């Protein structure tokens, strides 16, 4: 990878590190998606995946969250970005975790994200069940917070976590996108808008 990078300041949540950041954009049926990445230990690693929100495109959000981040990519990042776009177009794709920089997250959040990554397509779990799975049976709210701050949506499919009452909870791309993703994966909803699940993962 022959590239020159410009250092930019990262959020305090990233321990105020300074790292060279680049951004690759893909258009999807849910609007643009931004893949923010940097070289790390000799290879390109993803630091953020930013979804478009109602009224805010991912490109704009990336420029606000990471000012100075340059538009640039490489073969490895292009492959992941293309697979994200294919996933959002309906393809059945499972992403490995070896392209994301999980160590920007706290140890607890890493446990939650790994648990969420384990939920297969077509299944859902609840914040409470995930909390129990990671050893914190009373930590449903903490799990919800960890997933709300998931730096890697789609690669880590946090849309597959819902509330115990089968309502959707939250999602970075908005609830309309969360429901659409679940329906695309074969999850059904009842007339009240709750997930029609007979069983939960975990």
Describe the structure.
The protein has 202 residues and is of the alpha/beta class. The protein folds into two domains: 7-88, no CATH class; 105-184, Arc Repressor Mutant, subunit A (Orthogonal Bundle). It has helices spanning 58-65, 75-88, 107-117, 127-133, 140-148, 175-184, and strands at 7-9, 18-20, 22-26, 33-40, 43-51, 70-71, 125-126, 161-162. Strand 3 and strand 4 (33-40) form a beta hairpin. Helix 4 packs across helix 5 (140-148).
Distance between the termini: 41 Å
Q: Helix count?
A: 6
- Give the helix level as a range of percent: 25-40%
Number of strands: 8
| Global shape | globular
What structural category arises from helix and sheet content? alpha/beta
Major sheet summary line: 4 strands, mixed
Strand fraction: 15-25%
- What order do the strands of the largest sheet run in, or round the barrel if closed? 5-4-3-6
**H and E order:** EEEEEHEHHEHHEH
Number of domain units: 2
Show unreliable segments: 1-17
Gyration radius over CA: 17 Å
Q: How confident is the prediction overall: mean pLDDT?
A: 91
Concise description?
The protein is of the alpha/beta class and 202 residues long. The protein has helices at 58-65, 75-88, 107-117, 127-133, 140-148, 175-184, and strands at residues 7-9, 18-20, 22-26, 33-40, 43-51, 70-71, 125-126, 161-162.
Question: Which helices and strands, and how do they pair?
Answer:
Elements: E1 7-9, E2 18-20, E3 22-26, E4 33-40, E5 43-51, H1 58-65, E6 70-71, H2 75-88, H3 107-117, E7 125-126, H4 127-133, H5 140-148, E8 161-162, H6 175-184
Parallel strand pairs: 3-6, 7-8
Antiparallel strand pairs: 1-2, 3-4, 4-5
């Amino acid at each position: 990878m022959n590239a020159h990078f410009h250092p930019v300041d990262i959020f305090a949540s990233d321990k105020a590190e300074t790292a060279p950041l680049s951004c690759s954009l893909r258009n999807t049926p849910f609007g643009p998606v931004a893949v923010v990445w940097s070289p790390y230990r000799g290879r390109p690693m993803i630091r953020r995946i930013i979804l478009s929100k109602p009224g805010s495109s991912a490109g704009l959000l990336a420029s606000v969250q990471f000012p100075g981040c340059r538009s640039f990519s490489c073969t490895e990042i292009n492959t992941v970005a293309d697979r994200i776009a294919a996933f959002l177009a309906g393809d059945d794709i499972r992403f490995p975790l070896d392209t994301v920089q999980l160590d920007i997250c706290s140890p607890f959040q890493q446990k939650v994200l790994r648990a969420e990554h384990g939920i297969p397509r077509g299944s859902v779990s609840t914040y409470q069940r995930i909390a129990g799975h990671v050893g914190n049976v009373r930590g449903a709210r903490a799990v919800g917070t960890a997933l709300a701050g998931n730096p890697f949506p789609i690669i880590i499919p946090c849309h597959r976590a819902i509330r115990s009452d089968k309502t959707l909870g939250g999602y970075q791309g908005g609830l309309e996108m969360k429901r659409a993703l679940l329906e695309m994966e074969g999850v059904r909803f009842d007339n009240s808008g709750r997930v029609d699940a007979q069983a939960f993962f975990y």
